[in-house]
Design goal:
heterodimer, A: 439 residues, alpha+beta, Sulfite Oxidase, Chain A, domain 2, 5-stranded mixed β-sheet, 7 helices, 13% helix, B: 179 residues, mainly alpha, Cytochrome Bc1 Complex, Chain D, domain 2, two-stranded antiparallel ribbon, 4 strands, 37% helix, 5% strand, globular
Chain lengths: 439, 179
């Protein structure tokens, strides 16, 4: 036992980088004694603690258990933020509150949604999926039919091509992680591999693309290379174990792990194999970002390696100097996250974060780093590497290639461009306020 | 590990690998055959080469009347913009990365205009326009942007031949992934 050894304190922990970033295994290596150090810190804050007594809820039976549970009444603030909450004739967005969540799965009720015409109220018994065009045999599937097929489950993130777009503003938008990065979420999706259904329909050798189309009123359609369809595309029927949420495509959606959210067509009803891309509105116009030279990128497809810190972040006020865990999420369309580095001094020195196992390809990876905040100004930022060797670019690198706005973005929910995957910096003030800055 | 256990581990690996392969590729073939004729009502995809364009036609003048009746309420008089985006005009794309994308300054294919108008417009009542109406509205918008002449007729033959001003303004982000 270690009781004879000197008791470790926050002051004796190994410093890994400037402004008090600790070694990612500081707590693991020091074992239980370190918990005592944390406890000591907590106790020092609550020195005036009173004798414990039973709370009212401990002395009587609790409330009845409902058929379908909802979070505690004390968690009512953990909700998505909505644009267009009255469903007016324009796009609706619901952003995930990353700063109030932890781990890697996004609960279904908090998964982000973008809908260009609301969520259709689809009767699953009447829904049909058709595969046709350049196939050997056009086929139609009901939900009941697909339920008999071999299924697979995979955890994967879905990210809107416009997520993080406020970071194209030439001045930092004063907003938190939900506003800036709320259009990405991660879930376990279960369904039938599209390759299985294409094996059944047969593929005419002339087919190079497929056009996927939804049953929503806009019949949103996107063109997808056949190679992606045969790689890891899924007709997803379940989201974190239950049927898809209406806003996420009930009763079925196309899932293209790692690829631009809008291509993961929701309420999927038709897949047409074709010899050329359809150049639909959303691929020919909307999700084609303009470059500084006046040209535009087309078929961006991938949501490239990105990370951001969720704790601390602007809506979470720091409560005095001492210990905190810095944590956030990292993900890449190009496979697993290999490494995440964190700085506490605006990029001068860096410490490697611990990656929460399991580290899965094309899924959220939670990174964590212990931090002893000295109560002074700090600037936190994370950068991620993926297993394919891609590194999250600096903001300067993104802006050099992609440009930025000429005037500050005033509407934090606007989309000056798309596919920003640079870092996000949080400035921590002496009073514990956290704000979005460029560093 | 004994030789026997090692062999068992290898056999298990092969079994698991082949099982995954089976799940990924073999279909139980439970889908119902359907004819292209029965899909026709849903098949509204228009390709840039004109594949899928229906019969029918329309002129800018016809489109002007339809636009005033069914589109101007959101897109403004003569398409100058309202609660929904303008369909006429547009700044040069070199004005900045956040430049509003328009038919005139951005859209690479005229077929997209027909496709999107037919599948999604008018926003509250999609797929209520006749094919002639969609051709006429497409003609009206293209003529308002001076991409076609005021008397040009749009139909399945003429529409795919329209050359949009920004046709060559695009760079594939990942060329190696384009089939």
């Amino acid at each position: 036992m270690s009781y004879q050894q000197p008791r470790p304190t926050l002051d004796t922990l190994e410093i890994a980088a400037g402004n008090g970033l600790l070694h990612r295994r500081a707590f693991l290596t020091s074992g239980a004694a370190l918990a005592a150090a944390m406890t000591g810190y907590t106790l020092s804050e609550t020195a005036a603690a009173q004798q414990l007594t039973d709370a009212p809820w401990s002395t009587k039976a609790g409330i009845p258990i409902p058929e379908y549970a909802t979070p505690s009444s004390f968690e009512k603030h953990v909700v998505r933020t909505l644009t267009n909450p009255r469903g007016e004739p324009r796009t609706q967005h619901a952003r995930t509150p990353h700063h109030l969540l932890n781990g890697t799965f996004t609960p279904n009720g908090l998964h982000f949604v973008i809908s260009h015409s609301g969520a259709p109220d689809i009767d699953p018994a009447q829904h049909r999926l058709v595969i046709h065009g350049l196939v050997r045999r056009p086929v139609e599937f009901t939900l009941d039919t697909l339920a008999r097929y071999p299924m697979q489950s995979r955890m994967t993130f879905v990210e809107c091509g416009g997520n993080s777009a406020p970071l194209f503003s030439n001045e930092p938008v004063k907003a938190g992680v939900q506003t800036l990065h709320g259009l990405v979420s991660c879930a376990e999706w279960t369904g039938v591999m599209l390759s299985t259904l294409l094996e059944e329909s047969g593929i005419d050798p002339r087919a190079k693309w497929l056009i996927a189309e939804g049953a929503d009123s806009l019949a949103v359609s996107r063109s997808v290379p056949i190679s992606k369809a045969l790689d890891d595309a899924m007709i997803a029927l379940y989201q974190n174990g239950e049927r898809l949420m209406p806003g996420n495509g009930y009763p079925m959606r196309l899932l293209l792990p790692g690829w631009e959210g809008n291509m993961n067509v929701k309420w999927l009803r038709r897949v047409k194999l074709v010899d050329q891309p359809g150049m639909s509105y959303y691929e020919a116009r909307t999700y084609a970002p303009i470059l500084p030279n006046g040209k535009a990128y087309q078929f961006y497809f991938l949501q490239e390696v990105k990370s951001f810190i969720t704790h601390p972040s602007p809506e979470l006020k720091m409560r005095g100097a001492g210990f905190y865990e810095i944590s956030g999420v990292a993900y890449s369309a190009n496979g697993r996250i290999a490494k995440v580095m964190v700085t506490g001094d605006g990029g001068k020195t860096w410490a490697e974060a611990a990656l929460q196992e399991p580290v899965l390809p094309k899924a959220f990876t939670r990174f964590r780093l212990p931090w002893k905040w000295d109560g002074g100004p700090a600037v936190l930022q994370s950068r991620a590497w993926d297993e394919a060797g891609n590194v999250q670019p600096t903001r300067a690198e993104v802006i050099a290639r992609r440009g930025q706005t000429k005037t500050p973005v005033t509407n934090p929910t606007a989309f000056p461009s798309q596919h920003y995957n640079g870092p996000t910096s949080w400035a921590v003030s002496q009073s514990g306020e956290v704000t979005h800055v460029y560093a | 590990m004994s030789t026997r256990r090692a062999l068992f581990a290898i056999a298990l690996t092969i079994f698991v690998a082949s099982y995954v392969r089976l799940v990924a590729q073999d279909s139980p073939h439970l889908g119902k055959a359907i004819s292209e004729a029965d899909v026709a009502a849903w098949d509204i995809s228009i390709l840039p080469d004109g594949t899928g364009l229906p019969s029918g036609s329309g002129t800018p003048e016809q489109g002007s009347t339809i636009f005033a009746a069914k589109c101007a309420v959101c897109h403004g008089e003569n398409g100058k913009g309202g609660s929904a985006a303008a369909v006429v005009g547009g700044q040069p794309l070199t004005s900045g990365i956040e430049t509003a994308k328009t038919v005139s300054n951005f859209w690479p294919y005229a077929t997209t205009l027909f496709d999107f108008t037919r599948r999604a417009m008018p926003w509250p009542r999609p797929r209520t326009l006749t094919n002639d109406e969609v051709y006429a509205l497409t003609a009206f918008i293209l003529a308002q942007n001076k991409i076609i002449g005021a008397n040009d007729v749009m139909n399945a033959q003429t529409l795919p031949k329209v050359r949009m001003p920004n046709r060559d303004g695009f760079i594939p982000r990942f060329p190696e992934r384009i089939p």
